[in-house]
Design a protein that fits this description.
Elements: E1 14-18, E2 22-29, E3 43-49, H1 51-61, E4 66-73, H2 76-87, E5 90-98, E6 104-111, E7 116-122, H3 135-141, E8 145-150, H4 155-167, E9 171-176, H5 183-189, E10 192-195, H6 199-204, H7 209-219, E11 225-229, E12 235-240, H8 254-263, E13 274-276, E14 280-283, E15 286-293, H9 309-322, H10 327-341, H11 360-363
C-alpha cells in the first residue's frame, strides 16, 4: 500500500475515534439490476470502511494526528484494514485483536445511472466491550486528545470512554445517524452533534427539522451546536451562543427564522456558501443562531460515488474544531472536503490531503 504523503503537523492536538472497522466491497454498475438479472460491473474496489475509520483517515490526510480505539478480528480482513489505516497516518496502536472473531464487511453497489448506492452490511464479532477498557488503557488512549469522536455502534465501551473523556474536559463529538440503545447517554455527554437528515425529528418527535434542532439544544444543555446534514442540499446548524440579548426581547420562532434565512441564501453558487442569522433568543434561556451552508455543486460527469461523503464532512469538522476555525470557515471547509470525496469510488479514494489546491483557501497549502 502507498504511504501517506503528508505528515501530521508536529505538536498538534490528537483526534481520537472509537468505533467499528468494516471492509467495503465496492462495485459500480450502469444501472441497478432487476431480480434474476445478470449484469457486468464497470469498476470494483476493496477498501477499508466504517464511519470512524473514514473520518480519522480524513483527519490524518489533513495533517492532524488521529488515533483509533477498536477491536478487529485477527483475520486477513482485519489485518488489511489496520494496515490501510496505518498507511494513511492513523495511529492504530490501540486496535485490539480478537483471535476467534470475524470482520465486519459491507457490499456497496453504486448505480451510475442515478448516482445512488445500496449497501448490504454483514456484522462481525466480537464487539468492543467495557471489560476491554482498563483504567490504564483509558488514560493512555486519551493522552493528548483534544476531541473524541463516537457514534454509538460500540455503545457500552464508547460510553465508558466518553465518561472518562468528560472527566478530563475533552470535547466529544457524536455522529447520530439513527436511534440506538444507549445513544441518549452518549448525547448527554456530547459537546457537538452531527445528525442524519431524519434523526433530530425522530429523536425529539418535533414537527419540523428546525424545531427539532432547537429541542435538542434545550434537552442537551452541554451541546454547543447541532448539525443536520442534507446531502446535496448542504447542512443546517443551530449554534448555542453565550452572547446576551435584551431581556425584553421576544423569542424568535425557529421555523420562521429558518424560512427567512433560506430566502436570503444563494443556492445557485457553485462553491459552498454560509449564511448565518443574527444571535437571537429562541426559547427559554436558549440563545443562538441558525446557519445554512450550501453544498458544492459537482458536475454529474464528476460524481462517482457518494459513499463516505458524510464521514469526510465529519472529519473536516473534527479538524476545524481542533484548529479553532471560525464556524463559517469550518462549515464551508467541511462542505468542500465532502465534495472531494464524491469524485472517486469508495469513502477514502479521493479524500483530500492538506496540499490539495481545492483547500488552499482554508489551509494556505
Amino acid at each position: 500500500m502507498s504511504s501517506c504523503s503528508d505528515e501530521a503537523i508536529p505538536g498538534q492536538p490528537i483526534v481520537l475515534g472509537c468505533g467499528q472497522l468494516c471492509l467495503d466491497y465496492l462495485v459500480t454498475v450502469p444501472s441497478f439490476p432487476i431480480p434474476d438479472q445478470k449484469i457486468r460491473s464497470t469498476s470494483f474496489k476493496v477498501q477499508g470502511g466504517g464511519n470512524t475509520g473514514n473520518s480519522l483517515t480524513c483527519v490524518a490526510r489533513l495533517g492532524l494526528p488521529s488515533r483509533i480505539l477498536a477491536k478487529v478480528a485477527d483475520d486477513s480482513h482485519g489485518r488489511f484494514m489496520v494496515e490501510e489505516l496505518e498507511s494513511s497516518g492513523v495511529d492504530t496502536s490501540f486496535c485490539m485483536n480478537a483471535k476467534d472473531g470475524a470482520s465486519h464487511f459491507n457490499y456497496a453497489i453504486v448505480d451510475n445511472q442515478t448516482n445512488t448506492r445500496t449497501c448490504i452490511f454483514t456484522p462481525g464479532y466480537p464487539p468492543l466491550l467495557p471489560d476491554d477498557l482498563t483504567e490504564s488503557l483509558l488514560l493512555d488512549v486519551l493522552d493528548g486528545v483534544r476531541v473524541l469522536y463516537v457514534n454509538g455502534r460500540s455503545r457500552e465501551a464508547e460510553l465508558l470512554l466518553a465518561q472518562k473523556a468528560h472527566s478530563k474536559n475533552i470535547s466529544i463529538l457524536i455522529n447520530a445517524e439513527k436511534k440506538r440503545a444507549g445513544l441518549d447517554e452518549l448525547l448527554d455527554l456530547a459537546d457537538y452533534a452531527i445528525c442524519s437528515t431524519n434523526f433530530p425529528q425522530v429523536w425529539t418527535e418535533s414537527p419540523s427539522s428546525p424545531s427539532a434542532l432547537l429541542s435538542m439544544l434545550i434537552r442537551l444543555p452541554k451541546l454547543k451546536f447541532v448539525i443536520i446534514t442534507l446531502g446535496e442540499h448542504g447542512c443546517v446548524m443551530l449554534e448555542r451562543c453565550s452572547s446576551e440579548v435584551s431581556g425584553s426581547e421576544e423569542e424568535t420562532d425557529i421555523d420562521e427564522l429558518h424560512e427567512s434565512l433560506k430566502q436570503s441564501t444563494d443556492f445557485t453558487s457553485v462553491l459552498p456558501v454560509c449564511n448565518s442569522s443574527l444571535v437571537t433568543k429562541l426559547a427559554g434561556n436558549v440563545t443562538g443562531r441558525l446557519v445554512i451552508v450550501t453544498a458544492e455543486k459537482i458536475l454529474p460527469s464528476e460524481i462517482i460515488d457518494t459513499t463516505g461523503a458524510g464521514d469526510a464532512f465529519t472529519g473536516a469538522l473534527l479538524y476545524g474544531l481542533c484548529t479553532n476555525m471560525a464556524t463559517e470557515e469550518m462549515l464551508t471547509f467541511a462542505s468542500r472536503v465532502a465534495a472531494c470525496c464524491c469524485r472517486g469510488l469508495g469513502a477514502r479514494t479521493t479524500l483530500p490531503f492538506r496540499t490539495d489546491p481545492n483547500l488552499a483557501t482554508f489551509l494556505g497549502a
